[in-house]
Fold:
Amino acid sequence: MMPTTLNVTASFVFLGFFVLVTVIGFMAARWKAGDLTQLHEWGLGGRQFGTWITWFLIGGDFYTAYTVIAVPALVYAVGAYGFFALPYTIIVYPFVFMVMPRLWTACHKGNHITAADFVQGIYGGKWFAAAIAVTGIVATMPYIALQLVGMQVVIKSLGISGEIPLVIAFLILAFYTYASGIRAPAMIAFVKDIMIYIVVIAAVCLIPSKLGGYASVFDAANHYFAIKGGATGIVLKPAQFLAYGSLAFGSAMAAFMYPHTMTAILSSSGEPSIKKNAILLPAYSLLLGLIALMGYMAIAAGVKVSNSSEIVPALFAKLFPAWFVGFAAAAIAIAALVPAAIMSIGAANLFTRNLWKPLVNANITPQQEASNAKFASLAVKFGALVFIIFLPTKFAIDLQLLGGVWILQTFPAIVFSLYTRSLKLPALFIGWLAGITCGTSLAFIQDLKPIYALNIAGNTYPVYIGLIALSVNFVVTFSLSAVLPAAQPTKVPAAHA
Structure:
């Protein structure tokens, strides 16, 4: 059970580390100094992050607080199916190795700050780029909210109740992101990753020893799921294979279409840094697998909670001393700050470059762009805070599911446009709309569950909704591109750096 009284020791340790990263966040403005009145400096760090900084930045951005909370919670609830996040974070890196260096080069040559900039640079116009920007922003908002959910859970685990601590944490995050831009999460990511590694290594080494070893952990989990019945178990059932595989594959395709991961990629110093990171980043997938095992450890430890999201904090509270509970809570909270900051920056870049500039003020100066993005980042974080305080957590989770389906529909315009110029702008726009409509409709038909059962020739195939919608997008885009007349080349001026 989660504590109902204040854990003083844990709270002081938590507060100490939180103060540390706050100081780092504000100091980051002086690190790799640049003119923060320029959007490419505030929002992309001047495109100067080398291999190691990019490694920590992408790792801090991709493996979030909600990952640490949600993956073990899902494994605790459904068993082996909850490990789908592990193969998807392995599948994604060959894609990053092949595609993202090419995208970085194209964006660097065109001085593009967002993926929507890149698409507009190829096809011209402003409305399709705006549609991609809106897709990215809407898909990112619930993602930020879920980082705050992770922070809320660990704060509650210390015996601290109410929304005031979360609001204070939000304000700190908002102000140092405003002041330092992407340099703040890049610097804090070093602290975050080191702390998370310490927490996970301690957990996977010490917790099983307290529970009789890994054999006892797996036996307890197997017995638990056997009694629970249904589709749960520590081994996937054959009927789950297709759903599991399609969910992992679709999630991998969507992962680096999000504004935050795209921002981290475009902040790197060049193709070599991205390729090296595609080789090094699977180390985080190993970490993720170890994190997921904490779901089974909680079962073996007899942890009982009213909300599965509380599994990890409750497990640590039961088996570790108070000081380490505070350290683990701080690590998870900091793991919320890093991605939330990058997500808000990525969304702010999209808003400024692909909505405000083309649709409201075409003559905006570079200084005004940066100022606009800073205020937009505050608005995005405020919206995420409203999500958590005034709306049920399930609402954010449901929207995050839809966000994955939606962001996947930007894949053809961004990725295929790197390799071919045969696609037509109207075809891409109609394909995007068809994919969005199909995916949203199927998700609501399924009561916002990610899998839809396709019935083909009397057989049932459970497939991830995002892939079904993307298939519709592909068919429409390529079919219309084949029959539509070629457009006259459009000369689009390069964006301001």
